Amino acid sequence: PELKFWEGLDYIGRVGVDGSPVALNLFDVSFAYSNHESFDSRYYYHMRESLWNEIFIRYMGDSVIKKQILEQLDNDMIKPESLV
Description:
Shape: elongated
Structural class: mainly alpha
Radius of gyration: 17 Å
């Protein structure tokens, strides 16, 4: 409950004064903190991945994502037809 305000901010960030991203992603912030990284060495990998996923979901739609996931699962062990 104490970190509820952080919910849904995984893809939120801004451009810093040096032009590089400043992440509000909890993973990036906590990893940087636990590794004693300076602000200049900040992390933004997870924010970038989350932002890409959010853009993809919003513009391509859930049906396209489901189709792509099922195509990736289509092999001898898993038949996606049985998952639908």
